[in-house]
Amino acid sequence: xxxxxxxxNPWIYDFTAYDLWLKPLGLLFIASHLKNAGFEVxxxxxxxxxxxxxxxxxxxxPKRLREFGCGGYYKEIxxxxxxxxxxxxxxxxxxxxxxxxxxxxxxxxxxxFAFITCGMTYWYPGAVLLKEVIKEIWPSCQVVLGGIxxxxxxxxxxxxxxxxxxxxxxxxxxxxxxxxILESNLQVRTAEEFFSTSPWYSLYKRLFYGVIITSVGxxxxxxxxxxxTLWPSFLRRDSTLVVQEIETLYHTFGVRDFAFYDDALLFQxxxxxxxxxxxxxxxxxxxxxxxxxxxxxxxxxPQVARMMYRANFKTLRIALExxxxxxxxxxxxxxxxxxxxxxxxxxxxxxxSPQEIEVYLLxxxxxxxxxxxxxxxxxxxxxxxxxxxxxxxxxxGSVDFEKLARIYPEIRDEPLLHNKIAYLYYTGQNxxxxxxxxxxxxxx
Length: 444
What we know:
With 444 residues, the protein is an alpha/beta fold. 38% of the residues lie in helices and 17% in strands. It is built from 18 helices and 19 strands. The strands form five sheets. Strands 11, 14, 15, 16, 17, 18 and 19 form a seven-stranded parallel β-sheet that branches. The protein starts with a strand and ends with a helix. 43% of the residues are buried.
């Protein structure tokens, strides 16, 4: 008899949350391998906006993003946890209401195993609650936790009573541990083999958009990022397989909007990204592409910009973070102002309008002064571009986290304090942030 497995994406516990092309991609890859191994697999995505139990969101988001498949989540207001009680914002659980999740699960046949993922470290209450719900309905079901949270906060994750915790992002090790739990050899020996299959999107009944990944890892080592901790080396997927995934999602679900999840999409573009774009253009399908992660300006050469324009990229975000040369060097030396301006020129010359180009500026990380932030915003606006302020969140495994932990030692023990809104307030930077947001929203 086949073992029944539930793969589950829990709720978001936060002050704010928005479906900006958000899907549990790693979990869908694992589900695909489990299916290939002969297991009976089902999905519960507590953030699925197409789920029949998901009410309408009060915040639907900007019209432009809604047209591209994005949207708001339903939010249940909850009491703020003690460590966040001084934050003057409504805290809540985003996603399908708890009662609807219980109803959904109670109508399914019992599962032998449940694999729960957890992304942001400060979203862990959703994973813990989902474990409790599953155990309440099927006490004998073994519930396993994986994802970024247990990798970066392994000791914290182990205290919640999961039957097993997988504290690794290495795909081979993850599947080895999954195989031990299931008493099965999943026969994946390399990361290349792991990514040679496609994420199992057919577990969804309907999709607003697709998310794709062409590579993992990043060549840079920025002080505020833990990418190197999660993915120590760079690996590129077969572009032919990626194109097949895009084509399948279009013909199966009618998906037209695709977001790239890569940390370093444009790295060594001649060997990967440009080949991919050539194949996408040959499809001659009415597709649109989006870059929610800021791409590296140093790789945005004229040929890359030209191919992106031909392939119909609609959401362009470039990572600048700061215009201070000193801080640029200290934090990773991935960009300087001249390189950034050259990238913008490349985009403008091929036909992208200023309204289509957004610039990420990182707010709240150690180092910049209020003058640095104001200068960065004004610099971007002088170029006729719209700055988008990205709030810093302390990330375990990063250089900056260790600096901050010496000042705020409590962030080592409580991942809820990694929350970007919480960090904004308990470091007293909320008023400056509000000032910068007003400046960013003024007409260009």
